[in-house]
Amino acid sequence: MKANIKNKMALAIATLGLAACSSTDLYDEAAIEKNAKLTYSENFTKKYPDVNLNQNWDFSCKTPDYGLAANSNKARTRAGEDDFSFGDWYYVEKATLDYMHTQLPEGKNNSSKGQAFFMTVPSEDFTIVPIYQGIASAVWKLHVVVGDQDYSVWYKNDRIEIKDKGDQNWHSTVRPSWENGTWWYHELTFNSDGSNIHMQDGSVNIVTDVRSKEINFHNMPVGEPMYFYLKIHVTGNDAEHYMHDLYAQQSSLKGMMIALDCDLPSNLPDNYKAMIIGCEDADKTNSDWDYNDVVFMIYGQKKPDVVVVTDGTPIVQTISKRYFIEDLGATDDFDFNDIVVDVIQTTTSTPVLTNGVITDIKPGVTTQKAIIRHLGGTLPFNLKIGDTEILEMGGQQTFQTSPDLEFDVTGWNPDTHNISVQVQQLGNKGVYNNVKFPKAGEAPMIIAVDPSQTWMQERQSVPAEWFTE
Fold it and tell me: What is the band of 89 on the pLDDT scale with cuts at 50, 70, 90?
């Protein structure tokens, strides 16, 4: 989302355009539509005076998700928390950290030590623990996908604590400091020699101990495919925005993680097996590829089988966007919930790998579908997505319903957003207003967001932060 820039010119243009319409235009169908759009634009600018209209109104993730073709016939669903729980503190042994530092040194390209992979579930019960955070500006959640179940298990800096040379009490990896009347939160991340390069005064802060909460999985289906990804939720500071795509999924299937065998720590039972997974959170050309932005260990009575993704391995790419649509039933209503529709494109592809990282995709079969999630308007409409028209939807009888109606579509372009709506004019049956995805410089009546974004309640305007961050 974009930086705040005031846009007074759009308000002036909208006001002049409205004044130029004569009273006779009120009885002209095209003029009614034009007047409504001009009034809407004027009201939008009044409501959001600091929002720059000259921007891209697509706030969704611009990179595809990756999944396994074996599960492409199932929708990947968010799993509940019944299948995993947080356990006791796990105290990371120095030998494990020393080994990790040797294998994944900070700032060095370590991509030659692994390849894109997935695993098979080793046993019904197993445990994952974060053991290390490297130098990384983004904030993410760690997801574990087992079959078609997607588990969001760990948020960066959560349930991990350290001791350091200056403070031998257990404390968070994020600590506040007071600067010029403002609280700033500095991550106490640490690099391969144990020093913290983010200390405000430039001093070295030697990390002496690390502990994190166990993430215990229960009753898992043995032998089922399993993979991991980091979902980017905060992209980093302004100087590093280009390093990360908001909501991108940096997946082990994509070559963004490395699986390494390790010696069994002495604080685990003798019949256990362990390995470590190193993760890279950005796949840009200027990424450092050190794979230690977060490192976690997986252990249990059996070691997972690692299946390397090779040239020709079928992988499913998914691009999905949620469109929030205003129907012009009211020109001062900015809840963007009159029509909520998800559009999803899945392509079964074969990846091309270079040094274990996917560098190209050979497209295969592509399918597209639309799901109407919510209808918060009262006006009938025709919806067009790509080459597909969905006719005679909505109306008073579907007001405030969430039907989850699914349609096959073709020709949708997720980059150009060729989606439009014809909405029956209020009090003018058979005559329709035409709502299209906005160009830069236009007040939006359609916006694209990540499908995880929930819609607003009726007549509750979307926050300005949606358009300015």
Answer: very high
